[in-house]
C-alpha cells in the first residue's frame, strides 16, 4: 500500500494570497483541507456544498460520524480522522467508542453500531454493502438514508484519497489516530 507523503505536495494557500475568488470561497474557512483544496477553485466551489449537504443529511449525526471515522481508518486518512474526532464527541460518541472505531473488532458494539461499521468495511473492501448488512440497515433506515449511506462513505473515500495524495497535514492541535 502506498504511504501518504510526510510533507505537503501542494501547500495550503497562504493568507496573503487569499484574495478575490479564493477569499470569497474560503470565507472564514482556515483548515488545511480548505486552504489546499481552494487551489482548484472550480472543484472547491462544487465540492463544498456537496460535503456540507452530507454533514446535514438524513443519517443520524452519530451514525454519520461512526461511518466517517471508520472510513478514515480504512483509508489511513489521519487528517479526516483528526477533523472528525471532535465532531463525533459533539454528537454523542464517547472517547472509548471513538478509539474502538480504529480497531478491526466489532466486539462490544451495540448491534446496529456494528452494522454501520461493517457497512463501511464492506464498502471499502468490496465496493458494495453485503445482503445481510443491507437487510439490517433496511430494518432501521428509510430509502433516502439507505441511498445516503454509501454516498457518504464514497465521499469520504474521495476526500481521504485526495488528502493523502496531496499530503495535507493535520491542523495544529488536532489528534492523530489512537495508539
Describe the structure.
Helices cover 62% and strands 0% of the residues. The chain has 179 residues and is mainly α. The protein folds into two domains: 15-54, no CATH class; 59-166, AhpD-like. The longest helix has 24 residues, at 143-166. The protein is globular.
Brief characterization of the structure:
By secondary structure, the chain is an all-alpha fold. It is 62% helix and 0% strand.
Give the helix/strand layout.
Elements: H1 21-26, H2 32-37, H3 41-55, H4 61-74, H5 78-90, H6 95-101, H7 111-126, H8 131-140, H9 143-166
Helix pairs in contact: 4-5, 4-7, 4-9, 7-8, 7-9
Q: What distinguishing features does this structure have?
A:
mainly alpha; 9 helices; AhpD-like; 2 domains; 179 residues
Amino acid at each position: 500500500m502506498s504511504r501518504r507523503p510526510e510533507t505537503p505536495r501542494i501547500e495550503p494557500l497562504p493568507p496573503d494570497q487569499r484574495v478575490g475568488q479564493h477569499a470569497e470561497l474560503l470565507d472564514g474557512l482556515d483548515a488545511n483541507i480548505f486552504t489546499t483544496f481552494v487551489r482548484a477553485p472550480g472543484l472547491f466551489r462544487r465540492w463544498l456544498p456537496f460535503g456540507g449537504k452530507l454533514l446535514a443529511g438524513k443519517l443520524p449525526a452519530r451514525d454519520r460520524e461512526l461511518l466517517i471515522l471508520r472510513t478514515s481508518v480504512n483509508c489511513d486518512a489521519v487528517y479526516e480522522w483528526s477533523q472528525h474526532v471532535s465532531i463525533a464527541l459533539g454528537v454523542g460518541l464517547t472517547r472509548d467508542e471513538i478509539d474502538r472505531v480504529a480497531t478491526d473488532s466489532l466486539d462490544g458494539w451495540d448491534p446496529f453500531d456494528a452494522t454501520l461499521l461493517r457497512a463501511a468495511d464492506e464498502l471499502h473492501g468490496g465496493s458494495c454493502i453485503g445482503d445481510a448488512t443491507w437487510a439490517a440497515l433496511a430494518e432501521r433506515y428509510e430509502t433516502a438514508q439507505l441511498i445516503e449511506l454509501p454516498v457518504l462513505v464514497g465521499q469520504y473515500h474521495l476526500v481521504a484519497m485526495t488528502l493523502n495524495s496531496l499530503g495535507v497535514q493535520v491542523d495544529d492541535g488536532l489528534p492523530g489516530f489512537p495508539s
